[in-house]
Amino acid sequence: MPFIQMTLVEGRTPEKKEQLIEEVSKTVSTVLDAPLETVRVCLNEVPSTHWGIAGKSIHRRQNEE
After folding, report:
1. How crowded is the C-beta side of 1, counted as CA atoms within 13 Å?
2. Which residues belong to the active site?
3. What is the pLDDT along the chain (65 residues), one digit of tens a residue?
């Protein structure tokens, strides 16, 4: 049973997350030749204040632009 965990910065719509789950599931099913029913996807959303790039949080970087 394939289990895929993805970590994203929060803020995407429920529709976009549903689309991501669907597309990732289909791709994993095809590539691994695994029944779609056995594919599991877990989305972990992180606040932009908790994700850093080059020493600054995404939140701070966006506010500096």
Report:
1. 5
2. 2
3. 999 999 999 999 999 999 999 999 999 999 999 999 999 999 999 999 999 999 999 999 999 87
